[in-house]
Write a structure and sequence with these properties.
The structure is a homodimer of 516-residue chains. Chain A has a 3-stranded mixed sheet, sandwiched between helices. Among the domains of chain A are: 111 residues; 230 residues, Neurolysin, domain 3 (Orthogonal Bundle). In chain A, helix 3 packs across helix 4 and helix 9 runs antiparallel to helix 12. The two termini of chain A are 42 Å apart. By secondary structure, chain A is mainly α. Chains A and B meet through helix 1 and helix 2 of A and helix 1 and helix 2 of B.
Chain lengths: 516, 516
């Protein structure tokens, strides 16, 4: 474990090996940026409909070149050489972070046979098509063989990569280095209990929250303008980014961070789909824009793990963006953009509506209390499928049982149940990072409030710069020099601790729903 | 010289060497598409202003990888092998065109050191930004060092490539294989004489043409919609392309032709700046969209030379798009898009206005009579800068002198003078292709009229498909299997001949201005 020092962020470019390493990494970063731009172009409507096939070839070629560069023998040699000397005081923590990051990526890339990677890529395209059809026709059985094949691939991947205890650990380690499923189980247990208990108490309470005004025929241009104003207000730098519309909201982190970090939103009849997505993607984007300039064109320029990235999006979307103080100032933007109906709605009613809790079937539409239950269900099912203790054909039944048990409802169809997410088309291990992000966000927010006792008053006045400055100083500028647990120690003084999220949720929703 | 045969366009993929060659060329084409998309993104406003430097690196890396693939030893071996057997009847003309094209490109690329190519690419991105600023602030001095650097690079390039007589030949041969500056001088001499003489006679004539209605406060969205309608009407396929706004109109040919060919226009108070640019870029785009599908992801998918490309843009912009018959039908689109003032203007007055001749400062807005003088001035200045007979600091002065001498006017500012074109941001040798294009377009139009005696009547009825079909059949589908002179022989029965342009200009403008 690295301890974060207040030394400047600096790569020792005077060392030949570091310079050679950077030469390879710069090229890789540039190539990834070009690949990322292919995605941006497609997602934001630039790609003509008649160019799908030629674009698929282009993307595959770029992907192949990236794989070639990530697994270059010269990269392995440089890592071997540097690892022998990197602890020497002539190297910086930035150097050490770089070597550690590249080793992790190199192992991942070289341990998997290229034939397996290509076979999985091909299978995932077929699997995606099968999933689209299965969801449209509510026909899980037609998707089952593809899921079965994905599970077999994921086991093979884990076996190639190696693991201590569970195959799942090998998969999760990709996006969250050093974390195991045992860690996740321990961290998630109190969150599950609290969420279930809070949900029951809220369902039992007589208090209802009016939300109907959040749905309406809101013009796309108004939603876009509102999103731009909110993003500008929280400190998103448009001179190093851009906003576009796409079918799904997304932050493009690979275009050239911290100098080029773009995001998309979609407009919808349900206003939070654009407005809160802007704050969510904005949180991701602020993290990427905050990386130290010394890290540009290196893999360290990006956020350190999928969980930590999600902590930043959730901090801005939920902890700040669903708090009443934030809206005391910012609600005027909503009222100006959409005078009807919001001139008639009080800020209190508006911010309460954003926090309405309801057991529901669809993860991406869930509130803060139930969201983590959706994730934990998926995590538990992924583990069981990977271990073989759950057969694919029993998955829909168990999905329903778990929804019944955790959320008190169950889907009438698989389309609204086990077939709702795209993730299982290609693999396992991405869901837990989302709850980990919520956990981290509460712990970071606690540290923030320790530092700024007048946090809510400042938010009420429309100030957010003090938060961004603090995040940049303690988290963002480091990119991925340090790992999630190191950053968390640095910023909060302790390891990941679920009690902060438990306390945050309990206090917030007890107050909102007047629970005893 | 290849004679064009009516055999189908077909690559002999059953031959191992052709297949191996295509494997390399497909990868190269994909990489070039990714590089081209970087350009599209920058030109259409996607690239954030803070990302100029990182984008310069990305473009340089992609260019470097392209250079690596273009100069791969395996490519050279395959060319050597194929050249020994390619005349055999088991190969097609398409195969022969491919080998010839790749050999020309390979020679060009292998003669340039990679470091030079990368350095030039980086410099051109920086130079572009300097040019944008210099033009906005009318500050040639701030752009001069970048131009100086470009000239040094261009000399180095020519010296690496080798040439018989002039460095300029080496540069021009890149886009127009087989053509020298001596050829250009010979072809341009009668055009210069005719243009200067026509201009003087028009200036002396008493006849004035009213054009004031072409300038107005036309909404950008209306101009864009009109451009879209005109493009659709001449056969541009939006399902394999797209239209955007940019500071300089441009056709993106490298994105994945014929399946992805996008273009840009700019809007302006002077309607023809958008409307005629749409027809001009549309002509380029039709050429690229017309390539046979068998050529996709090969270099043969694109137009055969810069001059020949320009013949297609000029044919649609000028020969067709500035003819009265074309507007008999299409003027209704203008009147619908911009009722004020065009409901009050007759089609005859409108089409006459589009052909108003006036010595002016801006090349891209010049009429058909003066346009070639703008080009010839640039051609002469490029030759002098490259030879070193003209110093960069004297360029603005000589620019003014030549404008005074050829056109009888001179710019009051460099922004309207020497800083007006984007081309010198990156190199020399592109301008003469534009006048060559005018020359070819007149020759091709003559052949078209031989074929379709009722050409004008059909145009008057709004028909253009017969022209596009004829161009596709005789020119477009071949991509760059054949060279410009071969295509010209095929379509017109003779070599490049400036008399067609001389006759076209003389007849058209004598009639319009009632010259004796």
């Amino acid at each position: 474990m690295q301890v974060i020092e207040e030394e400047p962020i600096r790569l020792t470019r005077t060392d030949d090996r570091i310079r050679d390493l950077l030469h390879l990494l710069h090229s890789l970063s540039d190539l990834q940026a070009a690949g990322s731009l292919l995605g941006w172009d497609q997602m934001t409507g630039g790609l003509p409909e008649g160019a799908g096939e030629v674009r698929a070839h282009q993307a595959a070629t770029i992907k192949g070149l990236i794989h070639e560069q990530r697994t270059a023998a010269r990269l392995g040699q440089l890592l071997d050489e540097l690892e022998g000397v990197i602890e020497h005081s002539s190297f910086t923590n930035t150097d050490r972070g770089l070597v550690r990051w590249v080793r992790h990526d190199y192992e991942w890339a070289t341990k998997l046979p290229r034939s397996l990677v290509e076979e999985m890529e091909r299978a995932s395209v077929i699997s995606y098509q099968a999933w689209v059809r299965a969801r449209a026709t509510n026909d899980f059985a037609s998707f089952a063989p593809h899921l079965q094949r994905t599970i077999a691939f994921q086991r093979e991947v884990a076996d190639h990569l190696g693991y201590q205890e569970h195959r799942y650990d090998a998969l999760f380690d990709r996006g969250n280095p050093g974390m195991t499923s045992r860690d996740l189980e321990r961290l998630f247990a109190p969150i599950r209990e609290t969420s279930m208990s809070l949900l029951r108490r809220i369902q039992d309470s007589a208090l209802g929250i009016e939300t109907s005004f959040l749905t309406g025929n809101f013009a796309q241009e108004q939603q876009r303008a509102l999103a731009e104003q909110l993003l500008g207000s929280i400190g998103y730098d448009f001179s190093r980014g851009g906003l576009a519309l796409s079918p799904h909201p997304f932050t493009f982190m690979g275009l050239g961070a911290p100098q080029d970090v773009r995001l998309t939103i979609r407009s919808s009849d349900f206003l939070p789909s654009s407005m809160m997505a802007a704050l969510h993607e904005g949180g991701h984007a602020l993290y990427e824009q905050g990386g130290d300039k010394a890290l540009v064109r290196t893999p360290l320029a990006h956020g350190t793990s999928s969980g930590f990235h999600e902590s930043q999006s959730r901090l801005w979307e939920n902890v700040i963006g669903r708090s009443e103080p934030f809206w005391h100032h910012h609600y005027q933007l909503v009222q100006q953009a959409l005078p009807h109906p919001f001139q008639q709605i009080s800020v209190q009613a508006f911010s309460r509506a954003l926090n309405h809790v309801q057991a529901s079937l669809i993860r991406v539409e869930a509130d803060e209390v139930t969201y983590n239950l959706h994730i934990i269900i998926r995590f538990e099912l992924e583990q069981a499928l990977l271990d073989g203790t759950l057969a694919v054909e029993s998955l829909p039944r168990l999905w329903k049982e778990k929804y019944r048990s955790y959320l008190g409802i169950e889907p009438e169809s698989d389309a609204n149940g086990v077939l709702q997410d795209v993730q299982w088309v290609s693999g396992f291990g991405s869901f837990p990072g989302l709850t980990l992000g919520n956990l981290y966000s509460a712990q970071i927010a606690h540290a923030l409030r320790q530092q700024f006792a007048d946090c809510d008053e400042r938010l009420s006045r429309g100030e957010t710069t003090f938060i961004l400055t603090w995040l940049r100083e303690h988290i963002h500028r480091f990119g991925s020099i340090y790992r999630a647990n190191e950053l968390l120690q640095h910023v909060s003084g302790e390891d990941a601790n679920p009690q902060y999220l438990v306390t945050y949720l309990t206090e917030k929703f007890s107050r909102l729903y007047a629970l005893l």
